[in-house]
Structures are given as structure tokens and as C-alpha cells.
User: Fold these one by one.
Assistant:
Number 1:
Amino acid sequence: MDFDFSSEQMLLRQTVRKFVDDEILPHIAEWDAGGAFDPAIWKRLADLGLMGVCIPEKYGGSGMDYNSLAIVCEELERGDTAFRTAVSVHTGLNSMSLLQWGTEEQKEQFLVPQAKGEKIGAFGLTEPGAGSDVAALSTTAKREGDEYVLNGQKTWISLCDAADHFIVFAYTDKSLKHKGISAFIVERTREGFSSKAIKGKYGIRSGNTGELFFEDVRIPASNRLGEEGEGFKIAMASLDNGRFTVAAGACGLLMACIEESVKYCQTRSTFGKPIGEHQLVQQMIAKMEAGFQMSRLLVYRAGEMKNKGIRNTRETSLAKWQACDFANQAADDAVQIHGAYGYSDEYPVARFLRNSKAPVIYEGTREIHTLMQADYVLGKREDRKLNRMLPAWPFED
Ligand SMILES: Cc1cc2nc3c(=O)[nH]c(=O)nc-3n(C[C@H](O)[C@H](O)[C@H](O)COP(=O)(O)OP(=O)(O)OC[C@H]3O[C@@H](n4cnc5c(N)ncnc54)[C@H](O)[C@@H]3O)c2cc1C
């Protein structure tokens, strides 16, 4: 095991940190209050090579390893969860799925422009009647000659209005239950497709989340990702990558909670001393640090397994569950440390707390990950090699 970051990874971290400090933090309170971030940020992410950091260079990416994606997610979420969520769905849930499951033609057509940041990708699994229970989805894709016709609705989809391409899951044969689900690449420009943002979100307010509608949307059969009936497997494999980015982002939120709390501890005094000298405040700081360090180890272990081409569903689920719970608790404690001032938008910690909740819900709720971990330990679940694995790193030419 190697616990050191490479010089390339350290440079990447410095670059993203500077970008966050200079171009996100000065504006985030305003973007959060206004319900959207400046779309010019997309171009900046692309210019910095952050839209395809772990996608091979031959497909338009930066060709770095999977832990470099974790570094990007950590540093972006130190700025705000909305930016990490954008990279999670664009790279983790969409581009990495194209890399794993796409044909060479699909990679050329969809992955290359996404990795370069010329197009944005997103992931449509959740429906009004199907969240944790994926097999309850009701969107259908009917084969007609060389086309599929999609009908249905998705909800709570990140980047619903911003993305150009969506990976969408639909039943091609409902009688087969989850083995009748297939995956499709759907472009926003298809007739019959529309999207609508959800207003009044509790957190990640500068991020775009909402509904997708498919009314007789016709797509070529060549837009099917994987074989008919492989959709459930593709969705779960995609989540292995998405959850990894969510867990890494939670480490960034933990860093932000520590930074802000330490600053406040040093400036606020009660009973004749800085609050950082009260043991009960120290306890909250110590818990944040423990959560941060433990989460990081879990995240980078999962990343190392990805680098080696080893299936990591179990390890990624544990990292996602624990890191998001630690971040949620740390954000709650950060507000507590700030007292009444934490309960306003004068300090960023209230935003941290609001932002920390969605990751405990999306990409597998806390309860779903608890059940998964219990099943592994009880011998009721095991990970087997998939027919198509994410390529190991270093990538082959
Ligand atoms: C900000 C945000 C962004 C999102 N982005 C995306 C996206 O880009 N793409 C996408 O497809 N989805 C997205 N989602 C949706 C998200 O993945 C779902 O909300 C999540 O899977 C949970 O589904 P649900 O909300 O329907 O809750 P439900 O599945 O209805 O669960 C409700 C409650 O019941 C519990 N529960 C359910 N089943 C069990 C069980 N078997 N045992 C114990 N408890 C159980 C859950 O843990 C939860 O507490 C996003 C959600 C949010 C909040």
C-alpha cells in the first residue's frame, strides 16, 4: 500500500484549490441564494481539465488515475457541494459508464466531447415512484425497427436543464423484472424530451436538479448502452463510480467544516477564553478530524481498487455511507460551534449543513448502505467480476 500522493496529484490538488479559492468561494453565497451558479464555471472546469480527469487521453480526458478524480471532488466540495455533484454525475455516473460499457462509436460520439467539457452528461435513474427500489421504475423503451421509443418521467435528476446527454434507464421487458431494464443515451435535442427544475430545495441550492419527461422520444438503437436487459447491472456499476465521488466530496465538506470551525474557535471567546479551549468544543473538532481521516482512507482504498481494476462495490458503499454520515454530523457540529451566528448566512456553515443532507440520501440512502454492508458481512451478498470492468489504470494506449 502506498499512502503518498504523487507530484501530479499534489499539483492537481493545488490547482483545484486555487480555482475554488479564487473563483468559487468569493461568489458562492450569492449563487446559493440566487439558486444557480454562473454557467461560465463549466468552461473553467473544462479549461482546467476537470471534466474528464480520469478519462483516458485517447477519449479526450486528462488520463489521470481514479484517485485524482477523488482529489478533484474533495477540493470542489470544499467550495460547494453543487460543483462536486456536477462532476459526480458528469464524470462518475455518465462518462465513466460510457468508458466501461460504451462501444467505440459511442465513446467517439459521446464520451470524447464530454471528457473535453464540450458537452455535459447526466444520469436519469430515479422516478417519482422509484428511488431506492430501482426495479419499480415505469419508464418504457419500445423497440420499433432501428429505433427505441421512450415514454416516462424521471425526477430529482442533477443537471436536468444543463446536460446535453443523459444515460436513461427504462424497461424494455417489464415481465423480466430488473433483468428487463435497459440503458440508453438520450440527447436533449430529441423531439419529445423536456426538463424542468425543482424549486425550493433544502440544500445544494446553486445546483440544478429536476425532472425529465419523455413523450414518444425516438432514439436510434445504436444509442442503447450495453445489451438489452443489462440496464440494472449498468446502473449499479455506475453507482460504484458515482458513490466514490460522493464519498470523496464528503471529505471536502469535512475539510471545510474543520477550517471554518477552527477559525471561529480562535476568534470567539466565552468565560474569558477562546471557545477552542473548552473541552466540549474540542470534542466536536476532534470528531470532525477523526471522521475526515477515516473517510479519506476508505475513499482512497476504493480508488486504489479501481486503479487495479478490482470490483469495489462493497468498499465504495462503505466509504460513501461513512463519509456522508461523518460530513453531515460535522456540518451540524460546525453550526453548533458557531452558536447563533452559525444559524444565519453570515457564516458558510449553515450552507454546509443544508448541503450535507442530500449526499446521505442520493446514490443509496444511509439505510440502503447499512443493509448492503450487513448483507456482505452476513454472507448474503458478494461481488463478482463483471463482464465489462472499468479499465485499470495506467490506461492502455
Ligand atoms: C439533490 C439530489 C440530487 C439527485 N440527483 C439524482 C440524479 O442525478 N440521478 C438520479 O437518478 N437520482 C438522483 N437523485 C435521487 C436519489 O438518488 C433518490 O432520492 C434516492 O435514491 C432515494 O430515493 P427516494 O428519494 O425515492 O427515497 P425512497 O426510496 O422512497 O426512500 C424513502 C425512505 O425509506 C428508506 N427506505 C427505502 N427502502 C428501504 C429499505 N428496504 N429498508 C430500510 N429503509 C428503506 C430510505 O432509506 C429513505 O429513508 C437525487 C436526489 C437529490 C436529493
Number 2:
Amino acid sequence: MSSTFQQLADSVLVGTPATHDDALAVLRADEAELMSLVAAAGRLRRAHFGNTVKVNYLVNLKSGLCPENCNYCSQALGSDAPVLKYSWLSRDEALEQAGAGIEGGAGRVCLVASGRGPSSRDVDKVSDMVGAVKREYPDVEVCACLGFLSDGQAERLRGAGVDAYNHNINTAESNHGNIVQTHTYADRVDTVEKTKGAGLSPCSGLIAGLGETDEQLVEALFALRELDSDSIPVNFLMPFDGTPFENTWELTPARCVRILAVARFVCPDREIRIAGGREMHLRSLQSIALHVANSIFLGDYLTSEGQDAKADLEMIRDNGFVVLGSEEELAQRAARPDPVDPSIRRRGAGTDVLPNA
Ligand code: SF4
């Protein structure tokens, strides 16, 4: 079977897309084959991203008090999870928080606000924050995550300098009704399409461990391939007390690695980001997962604490990776010889032109 994973990697590397059956076989790989699977998926990761890790940093601009009822979310309507609840950060507070992540090594800042979607004034507010971040840190990418967008809002955010927009599909369409009732899967897809239409880089991913079947997990990943999501955050359910999913523990560290491997095989050249639940569910396999995924969040999540940022950066270094955009990575890039195309011979034998001698 392990040679089958290598064959699958060979075939994906030459441009043959993985099929549903391939994806299911990866998801159902035997525990004893885990490292062979990682080695095969790791070839795709290295082919597209080398030894770089993209580091992202979350700033929760507005926390809790959401009118939507996403059953997995600690900020949702009806959630009793004792998370921080506050209204919008000021521009200076947002800049300070973003700066902490950027100084820590993040190349992308994700500005997130709970809620169904932004009002026109909210878009102005976020645009102002984005302007401040971009003035201070012009090379940093900014991703916004503000919920459902109405017509014209994606274009306004793009005009303000936002690079990407996150809106996860979260789960398969066939499982969506089980996790939220206040909006539909189609609503989510509509916002992803709006962001693409405005020239924003679509960031859309999923949450594993929501009661989905293997087939539904694969369905969600194929939907993300279809949606052409540039970056795919793979979250592992954090079952907060006080939410309908409290006490839901469906994941093992090895399954989480297999889920990331499926994502890599199905979407080989996309940024696969290990997102919420990394520490809790991957535990001691976090490092191994980095050989499949190429992106993580640094430090804390929206409502829960992550491991120390220092430990994240150590893990990256210890595994032989470099942070994308770091001085180390730029030096590595500068040391690489410029690719030179072979120059086709048009003189000498077989031509009327004098040979090069
Ligand atoms: S819309 Fe976002 S913040 Fe609100 S409940 Fe759903 S996931 Fe949580």
C-alpha cells in the first residue's frame, strides 16, 4: 500500500488529480502506513512550497455575541462558553495586536470579527485598520474574515488593501444542516464567490470532527478544490463546554495527519494550513503534520490559547523548515541560482550558420 501512496504522489505531481477513491484510501490508511503516507504527501508539499512554512496571526477584532448558531462555535448564539466578549477594537488596538504577530514572524495577519456580516460602517472601520497595518507593515498580507458579504463590500475591502478573505465552508454540503441552522451552505459559497469576483484571494477551509463521515470529509475537500480556494485552513473541532458539540471527541492525532494528507493530495499546490485544534488534537504529531501542511497560525486562536509562539517557531526550525518571508528564507532564496532555460542550438550541424567553435 505504501508504494501506492508514492504512485499516487507521482501521478498527482504530473498533474493527474486525485480521485474520490484515492482520497478515501488516504483517509483510511492503516496506522502502520502513516509515515509512508506522510513521506508521499510530503513530496507534494516540498514540490510546491519547498521547506517554507507560512505563518499567520489572528486578531479577533470583535468577540462573541454572534447572532448565528454555528453549533461548533464558542461565540455563537446560545453558546455558554465563557469566552471573552467585546465589541470592536479601535484602530490603534488592532494595529498593536497585528504588530505583535508580525514582529513574531507572521507574514499574514487575519483580521476577524464575529457576526453574520459587516455593516457598511464596519467595512469602513476595517478598511481604516487595514490602511494602518499596511502603512506600518507594507509587506504583510492582510486577510479579513467578517462573515457574509453583501454586494460591493468585497470590492471595498479590496480597494482598502485587503489581500485575502476567509470564509470557511466548514463541512460538506450534505452535513451543513447538522451544524448550523441560521444560514445555508449556499450562503457560504456565495460569499466565497463574491471575494473571488473582487480579486481577493479566497481562503476557505473546513472543520473536521463535526460528525461527518469519511465520504463527507472528502466531499468537503473536493468542494474546496472546485471553489479554487487558495488557502485551506483545516480546523479540528475544539469542543467547547457550553456549545452543542461539547464532549464530541472524534479525532485522533493520526486521523488528523491523514486528513491533512488528503487535503494535500486533493489540493496539492494550495496552502494547507493547520488551524484551530492543532495542539489539542495533533499533540505530539504536530511536527509530523508540518511535513504535509505548509502553514500554521502563530500563537493564540480566536477564543482559545495556542501553544507559545516561541514553541511554534522552534518546531518550524527543528524540523528543518524556514518561515516564509523571514530573513533566513530570503537568504535561502538569494543563494539559489536563477533558473536558466536551455538555449536551443540554432547554429552548426543541421543549419547554415557557422558552428560555435
Ligand atoms: S458566524 Fe462565525 S462567529 Fe458567528 S457563530 Fe458562526 S462561526 Fe461563530
